[in-house]
Amino acid sequence: MSNESSLSVITTLCKRRGFIFHSSEIYGGMPGFFDYGPLGCEMKRNIKEDWWKTTVRNREDVEGLDATIIMHPDIWKASGHLDTFSDPMTMCKACKKLMRADQIWDIFADSDAGQSLQKVLDESNGEAGKIVAWCKGKAKGQTPNLPAVLNADVLTAAYEKLNADAASYADLKSLYTLFFNAKNSEQKISPCPHCGGELTEPRPFNLMFKTVVGPIDDEKNTAYLRPETAQAIFAQFLNVLATSRQSVPFGIAQIGKSFRNEVTPRNYTFRSREFEQMELEFFIRPDEAVELIYGKVTTLADNPDLTTPEDAWGWEVWHRYWVTQRKGWVASCGLPVDSFVESVHEGDDLAHYARACVDLEYRFPFGVQELEGIAARSDFDLSQHQKHSGKSMEVFDEPLKLACKKMDDAAKSAFMDKVVADWTACGKDEAVARAFVARLFEGRYIPHVIEPSAGVDRMMLALLCNAYDEQKLVDSKGKEDTRLVMHFQPRIAPIKVAVFPLVKNKPEIYNKAREVFEHLRRRYAAFWDQSGAIGRRYRRQDEIGTPWCVTVDFDTMEDGTMTVRDRDSMEQKRMTLDELKVMMDEALLV
């Protein structure tokens, strides 16, 4: 994406060319809901198909699942979603708008008021008078409920503090907070990003959509639209294990719709209320089981080769392996490696049940945000479902049982003592540790899991942002022109090839072009265009990211070759139909 581009440019293109529309637009739209148009649904399907091919079909250790959106509500009790799946919500006492408390400053920075104040801040060079003048001018229309706008005493206090120490208020957040709290040095309340009014104390707001199953609207019939696809995988773990002839380590993958009642959906399709996820739950042996079977646990300190999984890998190597795999797939879809970064969760950012989590973050026009997360979730999910359902989620591991049979009592006692010491050092219960090891000796355990979780909509938005390019061109006569082109990776592009007759009033050329088009469309997503100058037809395809354009002309009737134009280089070559198909197949299989 060129430096001059912004999210508004992308949204305009998506509407104009049929990638994405606002849902229910003719009725004023539904915030946080989007429809994918002709090109958008093709591109979205390509992303999902490529993920499925890479994650499931091309691997022998992953199975697929397609579960229902509505499941038994006890699943969400077991997973913790009913009790803890919430965002802090606050409301402005003046304008009554609801918003997420942790997004206040992002909302303000994106608003007209925030951008206006930032401009003043940048141009003021610390002069208090110029900054305060904003409250007397533009702020009256943009943040009319800001105390510094409503109260002359607050404005005077802000002026005095800016004069005394302008450096302390040199960023947008501190300056806007000053205009709210200038009269009270103890008060640190954040003002409403929409109007400058006072916000209520944040309260948790559960993000799950409620629904009713059955004809009676009763609390007993309450169910929920799933907020994630992962829990269905855990709930069906034993069925997939029993029917797939797999054994740990192996994975279960799913692509599907999820729903979250976001308080403030924003940034186009990045944070919406209905979205699609691509999730893999990869089940692995606990490290203790690996040690019993192989006599060692391979860790990252051993500098393992992450190309091909090995039996003795511990959880941290499996986690790093899947981080590497996911980075490879994201890059193969067309996002340059330097456009996304790894963000490691640490401390309070790490979920209480997780051993590690890495987010792949992309530099969107609105900032660096999460594209995909890869978490090591220990045995938390299966253990929770075992506890709440009363159904055992343990697996029987024959190699583990055989390895333990070969151990004498002294070796077992030493192993037990070692695990108990390790667990209690981490604050875990000794009795739980002993029970865990006793089950290991019987060849049984609850698998641990590595979870790569990606958003289809976020991935598509990242690819749209990355592909967008405005090129300044100069023709042979010195005339300047701008070419808008979407540089999609061919596998992801919604249309693979466009076919044109050079002229439409010559039956032999027109019919031959139709013959080529009908042949290609049986194999690829193809587009037919017969109207307008060839140059204009090329530009239309550039704007939707079509990798190749094929023109059937007079020479085609003589030697069977056609003009094939490459989108990125704009180079044109003569090719036969067979040569074209070979070239396309090679590019699409990358």
Can you walk through the features of this model?
The structure is a single chain. The protein is of the alpha+beta class and 590 residues long. A seven-stranded mixed beta sheet has the order 3-9-10-16-13-12-11, with helices on both faces. The protein has a five-stranded mixed beta sheet with strand order 20-19-21-22-23, sandwiched between helices. Strands 5-4-6 form a three-stranded antiparallel beta sheet. Helix 3 crosses helix 16. The longest helix has 20 residues, at 38-57. The model is unreliable at 1-5 (pLDDT under 50).
Give the tags.
single chain, five-stranded mixed β-sheet, 24 helices, disordered N terminus, 590 residues, alpha+beta
How would you briefly describe this protein structure?
The protein has about 600 residues and is an alpha+beta fold.
What is the correct CATH architecture of the largest domain?
2-Layer Sandwich
CATH superfamily of the largest domain: Bira Bifunctional Protein, Domain 2
Total number of strands? 23
Give the strand line-up of the largest sheet.
Answer: 3-9-10-16-13-12-11
Distance between the termini: 22 Å
Our count of helices gives 24
- Computed Rg: 29 Å
Mean pLDDT: 92
**Mass-distribution shape:** globular
Number of domains: 4
How would you sum up the major sheet?
7 strands, mixed
